[in-house]
Each structure stands twice: as C-alpha cells, then as structure tokens.
Request: fold
Amino acid sequence: MLEVRCEDIHQTLAEQNASYDIVVVNAFLHHVPEYLGLIRELAAVIKPGGQFFSFQDPLRYDTRGVLSHTFARAAYLSWRPFDGDVIGGLKRRFRRSQGIYLEESMHDNTEYHVTRKGVDQQAIRELLADLGFDCEIAPYFSTQSLVFQGLDAIGVKNTFGVIAQKRA
Reply:
C-alpha cells in the first residue's frame, strides 16, 4: 500500500486534505532557499505517528570540526577533476572562498548550502520539536569521491540526516 511520488513538492503540498504516514526528502533541502518554511509545510501534512526523513544535506559549516572540514574539502578537490567543468568549478570555489557570491550565477543561486554555509541542523531539530515531533539528527560523512567515502569510519562528519516522528 506504499504510494511513491516523485514530483514538484509544491504540487503535492497544494493538494487538498493530503496527509501522509511518511515524508522522505533526499539531498535537496540545501537547494531550497527557505528550507525551514518547506519543512513546516511538510510537517503539516504528516499524520500523527507519521515520520519525516531527510538525508544527504551538508551540516552547517561552523558546526563541523576542523578535521571534518578539512577532509570534506580534500574529498571535493579529489572528485572535482572527474566531474567536468573543472576550471569553472575551481574558479567558483576560489571566488566563494573569498566571500564573493554572484546574484546572476546559476551555480550560486542553486547551491544555497554554499552561500549560507550549510544547512542548520539545529534549527531543523528545534522547528520539528516545536511542531510536535521527536527528532534525531544523524551526522555522517558523505562525498562524491569514492576514495574518501569510507572516512565516516574515522569519525569525520560533514552531512546529516533527520529522523523524526510526529507525536500522536
């Protein structure tokens, strides 16, 4: 009896009287300008006892340790040459490291996690708690680089998941 929907989230939320047992969002909150507002909307359609899962969003940068931050950067740099647009990617990375973000840049305007320095996992936990959810934040390490992917085993964390259940 599982209904899987892969569509524009606003289309789903616009449906009248929609309610769900589980809402899963994967690797896209960091691309949403007002992700806390979206989570508030999603929480409203989750049934009592229902669950909210979110995975693969970057931890707020200032909450990561130096080791995690260093490994995340090294992993990015080891992956970047194989992704295409190497020169453009490195130029954007350098420009952003100087605190320069371009309003007209397609990349800067879709990679909100870069311009706002990650996703605020604590704000998500607090919001969900205020909305009647029991919430756990699960930090882990993730990267596109196969060489660095196993680093979670040594304790570095740069990404997180949210596991929350709406109280009945």
Summary: The CA atoms of residues 36 and 124 lie 7 Å apart. DSSP finds six helices and four strands in the chain. The helical segments are 9-13, 35-44, 66-79, 86-97, 112-115, 121-130. Residues 66-79 form the longest helix (14 residues).
